[in-house]
Amino acid sequence: MKKGVNSAWLLHKINTMIYINARFLSQSITGVQRYAIELSKRIKKLNGESITFLAPSNSIHHAIAKELNIKIVGKNTGFLWEQFDLPLYLKREGNPFLINFVGIGPAFYKNKLLFIYDLAFKHHPEWFSYSFRYVYNILIPISLRNSRHAVTDSNYVKEDIIRNYKINSNKIDVVYAAPSSGFINKNLDKEKFILMVSSIDPRKNMIRTIKAFNSVDSDYKLIIVGKKNNSFSKINLEDELLNDKITFTGYVDDKELINLYNKAGMFIYPSLLEGFGIPPLEAQTCGCPCIVSNTTSLPEVYLDSVEYCEPYSVESIRKSITLLINNKERRHELVEKGFQNVDRFSWDKSAEEFQKILEKVKGV
Fold it and tell me: For domain 8-178+346-361, which CATH number applies: 3.40.50.2000, 3.40.50.11270, 3.10.129.10, 3.40.50.2300?
């Protein structure tokens, strides 16, 4: 009898516990890590003690790790931890339900929910290092087939996944991203600079942006915020493209970034491919007018609240920059439309939507 009670208790524990792959805490914060962190904080509040965060030993965001009360498991880090240490630990725990916010997830573990933010690695392998694109193109389809459910960040990506991997539409849902609560309009005086915020990788279209900026006759400067990611292929910036009107800041913390958004005369995001694209929302929250690409998910997210450009055309980018420099009324119009657009998104709303998906998939 006692054995039966213990078995029933163990089965109940396995069925109710939710584990989250928190390997993202060992990575620098870009859009997908920010997405994972913001949803994780809220999911923990919604689910209490039934949520456990599992991480490798090399987490670098210690305050967040403490807030999430992460549990360190395994001896490896990185890819080896995710593919070997993590599933081995889960097997010992009875193969409970796992949420993977970032990356591939343990590809052969089946009781999981997988987030996929875009298929850039498939459409543009030239943007990535050989090892990254090789691993992703092999393991993402396997991990997706082995998942109970998938979530992505826009309808554009959902349709792209369905089209490329023949996934049933009922097996994938959309949960939008949002700007973090710290991004606010401080009503600072605007300065004559254009702000670009992105990791330094080919998809962000930096070379065309710099060429377009250099062809504009104005006293504006260009400030580029972001750091190099080793997963991406190299960007070769010719020396003749760079001048004293262009500044690379490298990584900046959120406090400094918020000030830059508030001071910038405009924000530019001419990305070639985005699953969602958080930075323009951050800029809009801070009262900054935006220039955004007219491609992939961006029109879905930004509607009529931005000035659009054709990202493969230097001339189109130049015209958009020139228009906003010379048209104060248009800048003010985009600031107001930006505030209206931001109201469509919040992390609390996204967490509630994700909680409904959990209830549907797992019955929590």
Answer: 3.40.50.2000
